[in-house]
Amino acid sequence: MGRAFRFCLASVFAVFPVMAPQPLSSQPSSGPSVCVAVVDNHTAKSLNPERMTERLVRSLTGEKIKTAAMDSSTTSDRTLRPTVENGEEVKRRGCDYIVLTQVTDPNGNHDPTDFHSPEVSIGGKVPSVDASDPLGGQSGPVYRDNLEVNFALFRSGTPKALLDTRLLDRSSANVSDSLMQAMDRVANRIHHELKKK
């Protein structure tokens, strides 16, 4: 019985090294890793930055891109640059790239805490008839504000953006849903940029 036990034990140890996973350094890399900072709401509208960030992370994640949501937020400055907190978190997480995203109101002031009386404009806003109007169009034309989604892609440790652009989001009755679609468009643009690298 002792010989049989030793034989089984030797067999297990002989097979185990073959079945054990190899160290991470020898496994092939699946692609770049991207850290996504929390979206900055630079409007007076009530938006959900965490939900937009989650959508952007989900849209960016793929078989060749590893994505992580960050705890630190995108800067509230008009010019998108990684903050000190962003830089430290990117280093800690070991990401190759960082995405910064900011929602702004191109027609409004850019400080949501600084409210002014509305401006008078000749001609005013252009109404849009929206099928999602809760009163079914009986309330007359629906006036929608457009929002801008500014986003930038930086390589970790470099101050110059690889991509720094904006897209205009024509909001619908549900601004939050409209911005979810905008996050998908941002992710598509970043995917395109990363494929060039």
Describe the overall structure.
Helices cover 31% and strands 23% of the residues. Helix 2 runs parallel beside helix 4 (175-196). It has helices spanning 2-19, 49-60, 84-93, 175-196, and strands spanning 33-38, 40-42, 66-73, 97-104, 146-155, 161-170. Strand 5 and strand 6 form a beta hairpin. It has a domain at 29-104 and 144-197: Rossmann fold (3-Layer(aba) Sandwich). The chain has 197 residues and is an alpha/beta fold. Strands 1, 2, 3, 4, 5 and 6 form a six-stranded mixed beta sheet that branches.
Explain the layout of strands and helices.
Layout: H1 2-19, E1 33-38, E2 40-42, H2 49-60, E3 66-73, H3 84-93, E4 97-104, E5 146-155, E6 161-170, H4 175-196
Low-confidence stretches: 7-28, 110-130
- Supply the helix-strand structural class: alpha/beta
Large-scale geometry:
globular
Span of the ends, CA to CA: 62 Å
CATH-derived topology of the domain at 29-104 and 144-197: Rossmann fold
Order of helices and strands: HEEHEHEEEH
Query: In which range does the helix fraction lie?
Result: 25-40%
Described by strand count, sense and barrel closure, the largest sheet is:
6 strands, mixed
**Topology, number of strands:** 6
- What radius of gyration results from the CA coordinates? 25 Å
CATH class of the domain at 29-104 and 144-197: Alpha Beta
Name given to the CATH homologous superfamily of the domain at 29-104 and 144-197: ABC-type transport auxiliary lipoprotein component
By CATH, the architecture of the domain at 29-104 and 144-197 is named 3-Layer(aba) Sandwich
Count, helices: 4
Mean pLDDT reading: 74
> In what range is the share of β-strand residues?
15-25%
